[in-house]
Amino acid sequence: MMALHPSLIALSRWIPNNPSTLYASAWASEGAVAYKSTDSGGTWTSFPDNWTVNNISNLKVSPFGSDTIIGFTTQKIYITTDGGNTWTEALDFSTAGIVFKEIEFTSDEDIVYGSADQLKVYISTNGGASFSPVSGDLQTFIGH
Would the pTM count as exceeding 0.85? Predict the structure, then answer.
């Protein structure tokens, strides 16, 4: 286990129903890596133990259950439904030349939105397991 310097943490998530569990994406020598603390941030471990994907730039914990987390790099989206033990790739942008920016859960646990550069919007209708492009761009999507 390692202690992280606060200036290295890119993003952390506190889990309301489990306040001692925190998730963070932090810069380390190997790039941005996902970390988990189960002692209110006292110690951190990268997760899962066999994690082979570097540069997780953001983590979003589902408001419907702390075991569902979406992690993403600038070019790929991953999901776990078991608290980070196993991950599945939900979307790969690496050949499209698009840089992924943000994930947003909605009040419907099945609907998750994602945004990318070039004003692209993606939707998941299965809780983040897969994503599809929304036709048009962000300006069309929001009606401006």
Answer: no
